[in-house]
Amino acid sequence: MHPIRLTKKVIIKGPDFRGLRRELTFYPLESKNGWMWWSRSFLISINSAIVDTKVRRVRLCFEGKKLQIFEHLGVLRWFGLCGLSIQSSPWPPYYGRSSEFWQAIKPFCEENKSEDIKWYTIREPVKWTYLKLRNNQAAFTEIYPNTRKELKVKIMCSYPGIGAWTDYFSFPNREILEELCTAYNQCWPPYFYYFSKIASRGRWPHDKTFTLARVRGKQITILKQFINHRVTDLLGTLSLLCRDGLLSADVTSICSGHEADVNAIIQADKSLYRFD
Length: 276
Description:
Layout: E1 4-6, E2 10-15, E3 21-28, E4 35-39, E5 42-45, E6 51-52, E7 59-62, E8 65-67, H1 71-74, E9 84-88, H2 99-105, E10 109-111, E11 119-122, E12 126-129, E13 140-145, E14 151-159, E15 163-171, H3 174-180, E16 185-186, H4 192-201, E17 210-211, H5 219-238, E18 246-247, E19 249-254, H6 258-269, E20 272-274
Parallel strand pairs: 4-9, 11-18, 14-19, 16-17
Antiparallel strand pairs: 1-10, 2-3, 3-9, 4-5, 6-7, 7-8, 11-20, 12-13, 13-19, 14-15
């Protein structure tokens, strides 16, 4: 697989999660530089060392500056986009998914056939488990090393009143990833539905950017959409281990979420190495 690179600056404008007008800019970089973030007046490498473990999302934090909901950006690495820099307001434009970011930069990406993707893995498996059961399930994120130059992902979700579902994915796969990026965020817990409806009366713009858990008779469809968004969130977090390439590993997520993902990749980073 060859890396793809951004050929020009791309500016994205839109409302953030709170509905305020925000702006994010992607700048081209050589793939050897990996992903970088404009923190104040200089570039810093985007990796697990600058992720905040105190919030239920992937938030980058460096010297008081923050970049929220990075998981919706980091997933783009798995298209093979191995080098770029990001400049953004602390809360970037929000769409409830990653598709809008990819569609904005896709026309300005080209494959670099003179290079091959670099591959990284870890020397030993890591696992982070929640202290409490989730819907009577032990919940965890687990990362096992492999040197097959692929990421294998198993996702299992279980929600009271909806049911359980398991799915399997293999990356890189640009066609499948593009479809997964269209899955909206889960409207969970269920009471968030009422918050969304009330807030939309005050012109909150994101009422339609959630997969509702309230649609009767469509439990399987809902669970599949939940899993599809869940895998993009997981990929966005795993991107923090990619450096200037991609991660090769077997990853299992059972009833898991951002907290377990972030803590697992922080452990994994300690034994990360390039093997190609």
